[in-house]
Amino acid sequence: MNALFVITGLGIVSLLAEFGNLKRWLTAFVLVGLTAAVILAALDWNTTQRYFSDMLVFDNQALAFTALISISTILWFWLSVDYFATQTHRTDRTSLVIFAVVGSVIMASFNNMAMLFLGIEILSMSLYVLAGSRKDSLSSTEAAFKYFLMGSFATGFLLFGIALIYGATGSFHIHTIAQTIAANPAGLPTFFYAGVLLMLIGLAFKISAVPFHFWAPDVYSGSPTTVTAFMSTVVKVAAIGAFIRIFSSCFVAVESTWSLVLQVIMILTLVIPNITAVYQNNVKRMLAYSSVGHVGYILLAFVSSPTETGTIFYYLTTYSVSSLAAFSVLHLVEGNSEEITVDYFNGLFKKNSWLAVTITIALLSLAGIPPLAGFFGKYMVFAQAINHGYTSLVIVAVITSLIGVYYYFRIIIAMYFNESSAPSITLTASQKMLLFVLIALTFALGLFPDVIMTLFRA
Amino acid sequence: MTLNAFYFLSFLAIMSAIMVVLSKNPVYSVLYLIITFFCIAGHYTLMNAQFLAIVHIIVYAGAIMVLFLYVIMLLNLNKESEPHKSNVLKFAATICAGLIMLVLIGSLKGTENMLQQQPAAADIGLVKTLGKVMFTEFLLPFEITSVLLLAAMVGAVMLGKPESR
């Protein structure tokens, strides 16, 4: 909760920074604040605290997600320095990003449906605007508008589901709902189950699971690249955090209602985006489809054992770090152009070996090649699924990750074997440092997965 | 008396909801939608939720309808500019809506035995009762809403402000 207070305060402070000459110090101040939030979350570790009549409960899972969200945001601020270089919108953009983080933290720690709804709305409202923040670009405006329409539609499903569940159980508190389910072994009224499925649909929109993913490629490729990086890391972590929080604690007792539906969604999420990504020539679109595909692996871990959240958290961590590395290189290579195709990467190794090596490591990690972080993420997911007897689903997942290797290698081959006459890109010391930190994190997470996995072992 | 009012309001609500979909002129659709909203507000009053009824009229029939009318007038819709929808699309939409209706009717069928379980208090819909809940149990959502509104306001200003000075 203290972390949430600090982050909310940061958002308001960054609005006030418009006064005087405080703007210059804004990014530094935000970074200090987010670091403080991480430390505060770490200090609360192992003390499950309930706030404001159980509206928010900061248990270890919530604290871990809060820390992951804050750390990803710090790294994101580092990679997107030039996004805040404009004079006019610096404070607005900063505060909107911070408010999105506030929404994410609420989504990771809610214990009440009202808070879930508010968290999702705060996050989405900020993102609709950030997606359209490149105002002179038509595709950015299109992305914002599409995101807004699809997001509102999804919120409608979510609210309808919440209303039906409230009607059946008489409570918004997820623990009270769980108790009501336990107290009625004969079953609740039928519309409770309809409500659970409607909530599943609403949240599937937010985590962009197939067949509710149609907005994702357009929004990801239309938004400014830095905002896309934010969406595919921080926002995805928050959405999945909210999803597993409600489905692993409250609805796990009615698993038979949603388990089969979620398995079908999971298989579709593994197969369709990974095959579609093969045909993309726009790298941002390819990464968008790959990010939808990664949701499939997370859902596989969730379907096989809804209460073991450690694997999902580890997968999300590795995925966020690798994605941030991939997007930071993408952002540097892209320059000022609107659409970035695979050809942009031609001969990158000869011109900028740093960039080429970083994105190679990031893509290999996303593809799941040992000894990088992504491999161990996938390995743990598969191991968990096999332990619980979902071997056939694992075979599907292995085949789709092989397809993944194919399209990731298209970029890698272009970098090492193709020639290009484009000038090389000059990197600042800070950018080099960032790339180094991201590579180091990708290796460290792969070599020491236990650092994260032990957090979730009671 | 209450039962008669219920049937009258339900009839009016369903008829005007059908007219929203069927009328050719979008402005008429909006006007029928206002009637639907007023009927639903009447239902709220019958269910002893006075505050909800008033809010429903102010927000939906007031603010949102004005917005709708405004947008329709700005779009300048007429028969020529109306986008053509293929029959396949219409068919798919009908099937989807019909399926959702089936699910909802089916799931609401089992609710009869629930009604007696929780008799509502007489003052449940009054502003006083609502305020008590809002400022005690639901204090945090109430306060966090301010962040939502602030984010929306900052976003609106940011989209509206010109890029360079």
UniProtKB/TrEMBL annotation, chain A:
Membrane topology summary: Multi-pass membrane protein
Main location: membrane
Class of enzymatic activity (EC top level): translocase
Annotated NADH:quinone oxidoreductase/Mrp antiporter transmembrane domain residues: 111-404
Pfam families assigned: Proton_antipo_M
Enzyme Commission no: 7.1.1.-
Keyword NAD: yes
Catalysed reaction equations from the record: a quinone + NADH + 5 H(+)(in) = a quinol + NAD(+) + 4 H(+)(out)
UniProt entry keywords in alphabetical sequence: Cell membrane, Membrane, NAD, Quinone, Translocase, Transmembrane, Transmembrane helix, Transport
Database matches in InterPro entries: NADH-Q_OxRdtase_suN/2, ND/Mrp_TM
tRNA-binding keyword on record: no
Cellular localization per UniProt: Cell membrane; Endomembrane system; Membrane
Membrane-spanning ranges: 27-45, 57-78, 98-131, 143-166, 191-215, 227-254, 260-279, 312-333, 354-373, 393-413, 434-456
Quaternary assembly: NDH-1 is composed of 14 different subunits. Subunits NuoA, H, J, K, L, M, N constitute the membrane sector of the complex.
Protein function: NDH-1 shuttles electrons from NADH, via FMN and iron-sulfur (Fe-S) centers, to quinones in the respiratory chain. The immediate electron acceptor for the enzyme in this species is believed to be a menaquinone. Couples the redox reaction to proton translocation (for every two electrons transferred, four hydrogen ions are translocated across the cytoplasmic membrane), and thus conserves the redox energy in a proton gradient.
HAMAP family assigned to the protein according to its UniProt record, in alphabetical order: NDH1_NuoN_1
NCBIfam families documented for this protein: NDH_I_N
Family named by the database record: Belongs to the complex I subunit 2 family.
This protein's name: NADH-quinone oxidoreductase subunit N
Organism encoding this protein: Ohtaekwangia kribbensis
Gene: nuoN
UniProtKB/TrEMBL annotation, chain B:
Keyword Phosphoprotein (UniProt): no
EC number: 7.1.1.-
InterPro entries per record: NADH_UbQ/plastoQ_OxRdtase_su6, Nuo/plastoQ_OxRdtase_6_NuoJ
Domain of life: Bacteria
Top EC class of this enzyme: translocase
Keywords: Cell membrane, Membrane, NAD, Quinone, Transmembrane, Transmembrane helix
Reaction catalysis annotation: a quinone + NADH + 5 H(+)(in) = a quinol + NAD(+) + 4 H(+)(out)
Subcellular location: Cell membrane
Gene3D superfamilies given in the database record: NADH-ubiquinone/plastoquinone oxidoreductase chain 6, subunit NuoJ
Topology in the lipid bilayer: Multi-pass membrane protein
Residues that span the membrane, as ranges: 6-23, 30-47, 53-76, 88-108, 138-159
Protein purpose: NDH-1 shuttles electrons from NADH, via FMN and iron-sulfur (Fe-S) centers, to quinones in the respiratory chain. Couples the redox reaction to proton translocation (for every two electrons transferred, four hydrogen ions are translocated across the cytoplasmic membrane), and thus conserves the redox energy in a proton gradient.
Similarity comment: family membership: Belongs to the complex I subunit 6 family.
Protein name per its UniProtKB record: NADH-quinone oxidoreductase subunit J
Organism expressing this protein natively: Ohtaekwangia kribbensis
